[in-house]
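anyone seen this seq b4? input:
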Amino acid sequence: MALTNELVETESSSFKEELEKIVWVDAMVEEYESIVKNNVWEVVPRITDKSVVDSSWIFKVKHATDVIIEKYKAITMAKGYSQVEGIDYEETFSPIARYSSIRSILAQFSQMGWKIHQMDLKITFLNGVIEVELYIEQPEGFNTFDRESHVCRLK
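predicted toks r here
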């Protein structure tokens, strides 16, 4: 039970707490550099008649085993729940496989004696096609110098 409590204590949802720990600052910098490198958004002046979705940081500890910490991961996320259906969006889509499909595929691989390789993709959603203009707030702590009031237009 003590081990479980130790794992829970290493993650936080407080941005200010995490700024005090260099591992989390490094993780945030890595995430932000990945976004910039992949040209995910451009910082533009705020448009008054456009809705802007807030953003926040999510902090996760990735473990290689139950006790060994493999990586500290910081993810900047859009707070999609702040959007209003019919105003900010018309429909939603989430490409999630059904568990029965996954079980069928795993069973077939097992039956055929094929190898299965699992991998973790860092930026899977970044190459989607966006047909409308979407704006999010700049990530906390990473506001562009002299453009603090600007927002990010997703590409």
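The first strand starts at residue 41 and ends at 44. DSSP finds four helices and six strands in the chain. kinda curious what u guys think
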